[in-house]
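Example record for the data management plan.
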Amino acid sequence: MKRCLAEFIGTFWLVLGGCGSAVLAATFTAKDVTLGLDTSFPLGISFLGVALAFGLTVFTMAYAVGHISGGHFNPAVSFGLWAGKRFSGSDLLPYIVAQVLGGIVAAIIILIIASGNPDFALGGANPLATNGYGAHSPGGYSLLSCLICEIVLTFMFLLIILGVTDRRASVGFAPAAIGLALTLIHLISIPVTNTSVNPARSTGVALFCGNAELIAQLWMFWVAPIIGAILAGWLYLAIFAESRIPASVNPEVERIS
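Corresponding structural encoding:
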């Protein structure tokens, strides 16, 4: 229960910080603020700010509760670590339930806060920072493009996670590397899918977006990240795991010799 609670809180923070920044701050402007003569000064954080927000949520929570639960905050990460034999299959379901519940509660909080603004309305292609393809892709990308994007980026995300949490890696830097990796992933793919690589993040906001089409597209944001994550877990286990590395290139062996 302690580990599941940590996963709940971590995923809650990820969705609240990442999707909350997109909904509340990404396009915010102040009419009374000007730069120079009659030049409007935008205060929105835009794509870069949202990408950093997602990265910072993982960065901060990995340090805060990573030592308790492993800091997954994402069903795809749990599947990838399971495929890489770093995580027990018996813990998959409790972790995923906790992660999805964390995403749902965060989405409710975002909606409550946003509804306090009289100008707020659930509308557009991606209300509440939802993910989508086709007409619901921010850049109008096709299902195939979005599928490939989510698979490949989740694959790389898990490869990074598996690498930086390997016991041979430098100690203490994993949260920074993982947070920066998630930031980079968002910089690449916000225009394509609004960036998921996390089924819990996609599910939480989709349930309250008021658009049945977006809920119908949720399957892709479960299937693609999990495929990418499992492929990365298998690859790391088969090629890069410690037992697969010849003694001549094993840093531990080099130090002993």
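Summary line stored alongside the record: Residues 247-257 have pLDDT under 50 and may be disordered.
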